[in-house]
Task: structure prediction
Amino acid sequence: MKDIAIIGDGFAAAAMVAHLLRRGIAPSSITVIGPRELGKGNAYGCDSPFFRLNIREDLPIIFSDDPLHFARWAQEHVSDSQARTDAGYFYRRQDFGRYVSSLINHESQAGQVEQIKARVLGIGGVDGSWNLELDNRSVISANQVVIATGNPPPIWPCEVSQPNSPAGASHLIENPWTGSAFREIDSQENIILLGGGLTALDAINALAGRNHLGMIYVISPRAAFPPAQAKWQRKVQPNWPQNLTPAKLIRFMRNHLPSAPTASSEWQCAWEELRPNINTIWQQFSLQQKHSLFKRLGWLWNLYRFRASPQTIAAYEQLRARNQIEFVLGRAKEIQCSETKVKALLSNGLDVQGDRIINCTGVATDPLLKSLIKNQLAIADPLGNAIAVDKTLQVQNVSGGQWNTLWMIGPATMGSLGDVIAASAIAKQAEQLAVHIFG
Ligand SMILES: Cc1cc2nc3c(=O)[nH]c(=O)nc-3n(C[C@H](O)[C@H](O)[C@H](O)COP(=O)(O)OP(=O)(O)OC[C@H]3O[C@@H](n4cnc5c(N)ncnc54)[C@H](O)[C@@H]3O)c2cc1C
Result:
């Protein structure tokens, strides 16, 4: 029987391990289950030098008592002449992944944390004695389990007519997060990006970095990308009104934000001043209010909460100035692929043809979490995207209570707890949980 099992091998799992070790838990008590090197995950396990952190160097905070830990490490270990901008240093994501892995090695000097290179397919058992079914056909048992399965990689959002040959299939890039697919792209190709968020901007930066000459068509319901990060700092604490409703919240936010452009320091300072309280407010809303707020504010929140690195936006501006970027408004309903071309058919009747299509539509649904709901071990969260947890990160069960020894951290807690996606927000959860279990 394992003592503490952590499911997942990304940043969240690594932050959990780091905080457990800092609280004096022996490495031999911790077992990580995940297929790849601990600490990199989907977000930082990329091999493209053009994928950058979208936050400056002082913001990915793992230890609240040492906020500049990463900034110092990067100064010493990263050679990246492009990192510095007027808004701060924006390092490559692969370097951040390297940092997290080296941190784990450093923290576990006293002994190795066991990692089982497998995926967990299902969880069974009872509180305090969980059975984890692995994809290598084994089952391991654990007293306490932390789910940290992160961002499920994107899957096509519509029907795709698959070509018969591997050559044809190479025109379809379903998961661009590792960055490796960009190496195969010829600079003359016309590229279709499905989705207009941060993944599409990463793709544009990777294409620009490889001197792309062909067209880039961005299929998205809105012709807007997140702005670049400006230099910002929180100056005032907003005086939030009592008894907020979604409508009052939106009104208050609107009044707090200046009319300056969203890419300006002035606007971003005000925006960031609003963020620290959002999770507490979200948690106080009823289910209906959460739905209403998400419907009205969700897309705007997604657009502005992080912004992109200045380097990424500069690459976008450069290609736009050369008329290589065109937005096509709408949503794809089908993708057709021949041996040499791809075509996206949109629900508004438009179609776009290109040499390759890249899926930039964001996270899919987590099959493990889905199985927990199906097997009545957990309930869906308020947004229906993941499973519900309470404020102490305990997974909620179908009887209206929560499991004492089953927790979840990371982006999958967003529906329950609010804005939990940035590295620092996840590390805070890991710290909270380490203190809560073993404090
Ligand atoms: C492409 C991308 C870029 C991002 N960039 C930034 C950024 O620049 N700045 C920022 O603050 N945040 C960024 N984020 C947000 C990100 O959510 C967090 O920063 C953080 O990295 C999430 O870590 P995680 O471990 O929860 O998830 P992930 O990075 O998704 O890692 C989860 C890991 O768990 C494994 N796993 C999943 N299911 C199972 C299973 N059933 N069994 C075993 N293992 C499993 C996966 O294979 C994966 O390796 C980014 C996210 C993505 C997807």
